[in-house]
Design brief:
369 residues, alpha+beta, Gyrase A, domain 2
Amino acid sequence: MTNERLQRTPLYEVAVAEGGRMAPFGGWEMPVQFEGIRSEHWAVRRAVGLFDISHMGRIAVSGERGLAFLDSLLPARVRGLTIGQMLYAPLCNRLGGCVDDLVVYRLAQQEYLLVVNANRKAFDLRWLTAFAVGRSGVQIEDLSDELGMVAVQGPQAAALVESLAGPDSTALGYYRCAAMEIAGIRVLLSRNGYTGEDGFEIMCPADQVAVLWAKLRAAGAQPCGLGARDTLRLEMGFCLYGRELNDQTTPLEAGLFWTLDLEKEAHFMGDEALRAQYKVGGYRRLRGFRMLKRGIPRSGYTVLNQRREQVGIVTSGTHSPVLGEGIGLVYLQRGAQKIGTQVYIEMKGRQQPAEVVKLPFVSSARKKD
């Protein structure tokens, strides 16, 4: 046990007042659920849900050398970002392992914002600061405590946000951001999310985020906790740091090849290791599976092939509300990765059949343009 005090977001009191069931997550005391995980899951799939994501880290990178700094740090093509555009990228070590995954916002010619995982923020700050040593023209600043952050997700998210912010909000393309006002509050609005639905993430001054939450609730958004956020991202096959991603896992293994630019001229952290792994091939790969009989797979369960040999360990698992069956993610060895392959999940002393399936488990309704 630890006596370390859990951190609280600016919306902690609001969540408690709304009946949120609080639990530790990444060093924070966060709402796991309000009305119930299943109800909240369906609210996002059918209408609109509201999440407190203020626990995420927000790190500013600026200066005349900020672009070159990020381009040499990340395996993605940061140089291709225009002002108001965003990209998702892994943050890798020299061996190609993922020390975090993050979203880069280009706010101005020399201004960038990184949104990082809550439990990796302190590490990321040290990592960025160390990488900046000896590099002039780069400033790094932690803005996490200054800003609150919420996510509005679901097929009705655009209409709800437009009712408060006007048509400029829904004109935003996918993975685009802009400063604007919502109900009189200055915000940074971005069109992205972690659910597979259309939606927005919104940052504003920490002392105004409770007012923003109240405005969004009054407009019809249902409060949702981290439990539903996890089942929603799992149905999409999205990675979670600490489960699918860690410093021993590469983006290639995690199915994140689309985030990489292995051909870019600039050297970047982990470039030699990633290029070598890609060239040689034969590495384990992240795959989805569905249970063929009743049962809910959980992280840590052993996965076996037809010969009952271990071929992987479940990283995440749940019951899918949409599909009505158990689903999960697993890194599978070569020979067990083909879609349609039957495997077995060791569950409570029994070997239950499952099938390797294509991700995502359910179709995405995200805005694509």
